[in-house]
Amino acid sequence: MSIIHQLNRRTKIIATLGPASDSSSVLDGMIRAGVNVIRVNASHFTDPQRIIEAVANIRSVAESAGAVVGVMLDLQGPKIRIGKVKDNKITLHVGDRLDVSTLPGVGHETWLGVSYPHFATDVKPDEVFYIDDGKIQLRVLTTDGTSAHCEVLMGGVVSNHKGVNLPNTMMSMSSLTDKDLADVKAGMVAGVDYVALSFVSRPHDVFELRAELGKSALRDIKIISKIERKVALDHIQGIVEASDGIMVARGDLGVEIGVANVPKAQKMIIREANRHIKPVIVATQMLESMINGRTATRAEVSDVANAIYDQCDAVMLSAETAVGIDPVNVIETMATICMATDQDMAQMKQTHATHLTPFASHSAATSICVAADQIANENNASVILAFTSSGNTPLIASKLNPMLPIIAPTDDPDVLQRMALYRGVIPMMMPKAFKDIHRWTDMITLAIHQAILHRFLSKGNTVVVTAGIPIGQSNGINSIRIVTA
Fold this sequence. Notes:
alpha/beta; Pyruvate Kinase, Chain: A, domain 1; 3 domains; eight-stranded parallel β-barrel; six-stranded mixed sheet; 17 helices; 21 strands
């Protein structure tokens, strides 16, 4: 990965693995162009063993490129679909009556089957739901235990196996399907850094996944909750508190709340995640035109930039890199947009006292990070050096939207890869374990030498150093120092 990208870009880039990008050569090109995290979409894998193989290849390519790259396994979740319909195409009209049933059968103009077994008991009279990404709109009149008797509010053509969205329904089924559980086990074996949980409705969904991850003591895998349901917005604070990170999944969210309400929801979700010091990702249709084209539209560039101005940690590419014509070019384009916007944000902070969303709670660590940020700005420092055993200090520092890069030395490989997602944070592996370095001054000297080797620093640069002393132990004395490289 380019040194320029790491030093001048704060916003992280997530790319989705797919047929266009799963070769080692394309992966290497994307990583060198600026990818920080690779998303492995479990929906595209029928065999969990393939997930393990894909992650192993990502790790191998990243190591060869000398880059720190995180891996996120994105679970499919409970997809609700209608069944087959007569002649693969029926037409519904406004005012039609339609029974949507959990019983088997072939759909026709007055009856449709649905894959969700609890559908008729979960939906309630007057609830509105959608078929085929919102193209068909239905209102529930009554239910009888196996069928919901509905009125068509918005009609159109319906074909086989179209998706169903229940924005107003609290579903009784788990957000973890049998496929998800098998994929989670594969992810644990593969050693992914994050698992993204689809169709989260409430904090309980997150706790359920955490219990599954807790069955393996191999490593600490973090949970990203995807906010794509209307009911999730009603429980957003609890979901954010229960999660390790948040994804604004704008595709299904747009269907459930209406596309006009997505920008407002995006800003609110990012603000809430930042208040609780959780990484936040903005996803879906960021550079959609580059699936088949070589350049981004002005609207797409503005969309990406606005997500960054909202202070997200990362922007995510989906089909653009999974099946697009030129994944490396997409990453280069995204990196250019991110760098231009990040530099403007840094200039805004330098010339204006930009407002920061206050943290939901305060601690010695948050106070130290605020102080370090101010000291770095006032002393023309080149970087903030934030030693960490858990990743917590660099994460807090990143939420202050610093003008400077945050170099995060750690001795834990899992923490190293996890920090690849954090805004403005450059993960760096220490050549020695913290426990084997006995003096604090030796720790700083060794880290600065390592940063110079990686070309993150030059001799003579001013560095603001923050850490808990002793390093690697809880309840250490928090410290800030100004040193010269």
